[in-house]
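#struct-help
A.M.: can someone run this one for me? Single chain, 488 residues.
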Amino acid sequence: MVIFSRGWMAASLVLVLCTARLAAEERRESFDRDPHWDGLNHRSEGPEPRRVEQDFGYSPTNHAGGKAAGEIGGLVTPDAKAAWYAKKIPTATFDDRLTASGTLACTGRHFNALLGFFNSETTNEWRTPNTIAIRLYGRGDVFYAYVEYMTSRWRAGADSPGGFPTVADPETGRDRLAGFASGRPHTWSLQYDPDANGGQGSVTVTIDNQTAVCHLTPGHKQDGARFNRFGLLNIVKHSDTGGELWVDDVVINGEGEPFDGEPGWEALNNRREFVTSDVRPRFNFGFSPTHFAGGAAAGELGGHVFRGDCRYPERLAYYGDRVDELTLGKPLQAAGKVAMRRGVSDSTTLIGFFHSRESVAVTQSQSSGIPQNFLGVSIEGPSSEGFFFYPMYRFQGGASGYADGPDRPRILPNGDAHDWTFAYSPGAAGRPGRVKVTLDGQSVSIDLPESAGEGGTTFDRFGLVTTWIDGNGQYVYFDDLVYTCRQR
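D.P.: on it. Structure tokens below:
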């Protein structure tokens, strides 16, 4: 339902937003029914749904080069649904020493999977919280190996690209991973030492005679992590190509697993086939009858928001309310509730003021991922820091920017509901324009360049709009929104 009001929806927002009362009119949207906002590609019909097959676990075969027949492995496929085959272990943390070793063989040409320690209760996205693992990435005749970890607060780390052997790329001349030969057995080990790296902890992985080390970033160990399983886990993101890999003669924290018989490990979704629509970048957002964001009643804005790609018209999308033409000459405000339920690495959600034509203009330029004529809030990484909630803009003529630094409010993809506000104040009397964003009272601000008001930037929509450079997706929901709809 849409109504007009000069007030704000909650007393907690009045002190922040009341200065705009005399300069603008605001609209409140509670989504207690479908508002029928304007949309573009937000319920896309492509890419087509995909059939997903998982078929891994114990096998009486001997691909991995173990001492005798019997191993674990098979077809592992990246998908939004977690799939794993793992041994239950006593719960460990970043304060405990962890070790594992064995043999492995990658017989599939294309795959992406994790081998290591994880938490069976938090396998919700890639990168996966509470993990210390080797990521095995198959590409034709070779597979690549990466050392990865993630804390309980979705902050991740990985070894440098030069951690494993490299070769010169014939096209760029830069070093890239050389990879390991597919189709034959390799030895491997994975070790986590809580006392290394000055007490911050380090992960060391060796494959054959090659070793890579990943030091935990300062502060990440203090986030904490809990590990209760060791085994094979698919990459939990969007559906992708799967392939076969095999593991044998595993030793976990000193206990051997020869797989000379069915080990009775626990399993989730490891032997099944199904069809999924979670295929990148199949947009699926807009009005939703759900009640995730903590609004007063059911009904909200959100869904599955992928990054867009400005090179292709079908890969740009938005869902927004029509507002009067708004400019940077007067204040703009917004507020509401938000809940992030899932966030894959390299993903972004944008909410704010944008233009129904300029913000989805097709161009071959990949100079910026921020859509033109956008002023609002971004939810994104980097992976090393999890997810932030912070202001972002790009104006007609090219001026763009965003808040930076560790003081930005953090939002976890755990489904918790939060209150948020956005306030833009134009510059005056030598003072630059400013954007301020808060999440549960924690604020971050950025000053805009003096040229911000030049170039004719206008906005005619408020809502969700995709980025201009592609990537993965998030499940995010907003409710009880209040936003500027007319400037006086």
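A.M.: thanks! The two ends are 24 Å apart (CA to CA).
D.P.: also worth noting: The chain has two helices and 35 strands.
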